[in-house]
Structures are given as structure tokens and as C-alpha cells.
Amino acid sequence: MKRTREDMEIVWQTPANPPERHDYIFRNGIRYVKPYYFEFISHAKNRWAGKTIVDLFADEFKGRNRDYYDSAVKSGRIQVDGKTVPVSYRVQSSQKISHFVHRHEPPVMALDVTILHKGEDVVTVCKPASVPVHPCGQYRKNTVVGILQAEYDLAPLFPVHRLDRLVSGLLILARSASQADIFRQQIESGTVQKQYIAKVVGEFPKEEQIVNLRVNFNAREGRSTVEVGDPDEKDGNTLKGKVACTKFTRICTNGKYSIVSCHPITGRTHQIRVHLRSTGHPIANDTLYLTDYVDSSSRRAFSAVKSNHSLKVNSNDNCNSQPEDSIEDFGIDPMCTNCPNLAPIGYDGSEEGLWLHCVRYSGPDWVYECPYPDWASLS
Questions:
Q1: Cα 46 to Cα 49, 275, 339, distances in angstroms
Q2: Are 269 and 215 in contact (CB under 8 A)?
Q3: Per residue in 192-205, pLDDT tens?
Q4: Which residues are catalytic?
Q5: Cα 231 to the center of its chain, rounded Å
Q6: Helix, strand or coil for residue 295?
Q7: Dihedral-angle region of residue 278 (phi above 0 means left; psi in -120 to 50 means alpha; beta otherwise)
Q8: Closest Cα to residue 143, out of 155, 162, 130?
Q9: Could you give the dihedral angle defined by the CA atoms of residues 10, 12, 18 and 20, in that order, rounded to the nearest 10 degrees?
Q10: In terms of Cα–Cα distance, which of 8, 373, 358 is closest to 171?
């Protein structure tokens, strides 16, 4: 779909447009996506009915201000059922609403998505920290699935299991929906064993530790908590968390840090992270869960570790040695609230990955493994 605005030809993309190698810009060890024009499509919910189109966007999508939405409606960048509407237009339930934007994706660390195994039915990779597995939220091309399609022409791919964005390690992707279903059925039936390693604070106990604490994820806060208690107790308090169990075994320690093998029996959001925190040995660079268990001297030590172990890398040593690009490689959109920056507002690409890494998945008749990361050595 093409349109012309102020002598500028605009090519609108949709989810059907595949990522391509030239879509990426590498700068100072960070992988950016060249901003591109994209059509976001939604269908009006019942609770939206009767709202003006501008009120709807101002109330429901707070990433931009009301003045922007007013201008977007007037310029045709927001449409209803494929047509331009006035700012006073009142939305009806189930109508198709299109928002044409100059899309800026958040940056990720410029680390290779290394292919570990490529077969007829399955691809396994070593997922870098900071890269989401599949398109979600503001991420579309800057994902494992997107990068594999752009750089290796591998598509379609169906992730078999989850890895949080800041977690690295083994990721299994099926090459068909039917194969993905086979893996998922095995996972749900409990016949798949999972192993991660983590670098934690302090000297972890030598004996195996088994944590059976319910995990309650708060989506609004983006973090989990553990719950202690018997759900059958008649104390008036209802436990909201889900049953969760993780087994931990110390691999090695230097007294200040320990490398721990983690075997989650269940698969709750942030399960390993909060279960380690509950033992008094949180992941040593996990700022989300460190605060209650680390004294001031340990926090100072963590700050020094963070500055000395930045996961930013030399762009000449990764991503197929592609050259760094300049700001001139993408056009500035006059209506865009993020231009002239590459990254969207609020993202500077300075984060680092968690010291949590998936190393092994095994099923009834298969095993896939991933090498240990550099931080797993305490020497």
C-alpha cells in the first residue's frame, strides 16, 4: 500500500511483510531497526462504542498525546473501516480501526542468534539476552523469529517454549505447527526436563535445595511474588499464586558468587528468579529482585560488576560483521513523535542481560543443549 504525503512516498507495512537483512542498523554494539511505516489494526471493543475516535485513542493508547491523535485523524493516519473520518466520528462495536504509524522498535544487544541445530522438523538456537522470542508489544523485527527470517531465511518458525527477553540460552523452534504441538503436549504432560544455570549472590548451600512456593505474577507491575501458606487454611486469605516448584544444585562458588543449576518442575513467570530470591541468593545482576536481599556493600559491588561486565559488544565481531550505519539511513517523518531518534522514547539500549541461561531441554527421545555463557566461570 503506497501513499504520497508532502512529496514523500510512503510504503505501509503489515504483519505480512517479512523482516529483511537491510532492515537493521548496528551502532556501538546495539542492534536497531530502521524505522518503518506500519499499519496497526484493531477491532472496536464493545466498551469503545460511542466514543469519538480521538477520545478512544487518547483514553486507550496513552503512548502519544491527544494533539497527535487529533492530527492523525485529520491527516488520515487513523481510519475506520478503511476510510478517513472526522475527529467527531463516534466508533461502533467491531469496526476495523487502522493506525498508520512511523514505527520505531526498541533496540536490543547486537549479539548473534547462533544456530545450534537445524533439522527438517526443528531448529535450536542460542538466544541472546535482551531479544524477545517472537513479535510482541513494540517488538516485531527485533525478535529471534524476525532475525532468523531476515538473516537465515528461516520461516515459518514456531517457538516451543518461552524464554524471558532478558534471559539467554537454548530456544527450540519447530518448523511446523504440528511439530510444535507435539513438543507442547510433552511439556504439558511433564515428560520434559529443563535445566538453567544462574549466577547468584553469596555462597549457595552445597545440598540440593527444593523450593515449593506459589508464584503470583502482577502484570501491572511486571514482577512476581511468592506466597507462603496452605490454600486450605480458613484464615480468610485466598492464595492467588500458582503452584510452583524448582530444584537448585550448586555447581561452584567463590564465596562471593555461586553458579547454580536450576531445574524448574513447573513453568511460572519469573519462577526461577523469585525462587532464588526466596533462598536469600538472588541472581547477582537481577535489579528487579535484588533490593530486599542485598546490603549496601553488595549493591556497590553489583554496580562495579555491571560496569565491568557490560554486554555491549564490538559490532565488527558479530551480526555477520555488518558495518555500522549512519543516521542518514532512514527518513524523518514529520508527524512521528520519536524522530529523529532511532529508538522510541524511553529506550536507550543500555540494558544488559540477566545471569540466567537455559542450557538443556530433554524429552522422551530427544535432547537439546546449549553451551554455557562466559559469566558461568568464576575464575
A1: 5, 40, 34
A2: yes
A3: 999 999 999 999 99
A4: 164
A5: 32
A6: coil
A7: alpha
A8: 130
A9: 20
A10: 358
Question: Which one-letter DSSP state was computed for residue 238?
Answer: P
Residue type, 95: Q
Characterize 89-115 residue by residue with b for buried, 16 or more Cβ atoms within 10 angstroms of its Cβ, and e for exposed: bebeeebebbbbbbbbbbbbbbbebee
| Cβ–Cβ < 8 Å for 118, 50 | no
Instruction: Name which of 319, 313, 317 is nearest 352 in CA terms.
Output: 313
Tens of pLDDT, residues 129-188: 999 999 988 999 999 999 999 999 999 999 999 999 999 999 999 999 999 999 999 999
What lies within 8 Å, CB to CB, of 258 at 6+ separation is: 199, 200, 202, 203, 204, 250, 251, 252, 281
pLDDT of residue 181: 96
Q: Which DSSP state fits 148?
A: H
Give the integer Cα–Cα distance in Å for 80 and 97.
5
Helix (H) or strand (E) holding 216: strand 214-218
- Reading the block at residue 334, the C-alpha cell is 514529520
State phi, psi for 294 to the nearest 5 degrees. -120, 125
Three-state DSSP at 40 gives strand
307: exposed, middle or buried (C-beta count within 10 Å: 0-12, 13-18, 19+)?
exposed
Please state the rounded mean pLDDT for residues 33-38. 93
Measure Cα distances from 22 to 25, 147, 151, 291, 295 in Å. Answer: 8, 11, 9, 41, 46
Q: How far out from the chain centre does Cα 100 lie?
A: 24
C-alpha cell read off for 251: 555447581
Q: How far is CA 377 from the centre of its chain?
A: 26
For residue 360, give the C-alpha cell. Answer: 538443556
DSSP state of 82: T
Among the residues of 270-375, which ranges form H helices?
A: 271-278, 287-290, 296-308
- Give the global pTM: 0.83
Burial class of residue 376 in the structure, from the number of CB atoms within 10 Å of its CB (0-12 exposed, 13-18 middle, 19+ buried): middle
The stretches of the chain forming alpha helices (DSSP H) are 53-60, 66-75, 144-152, 177-188, 271-278, 287-290, 296-308
- Please give the DSSP secondary-structure letter assigned to residue 119: -
Tracing cell 466520528 back to the chain, one arrives at 89
3-state secondary structure (DSSP) of residue 67:
helix
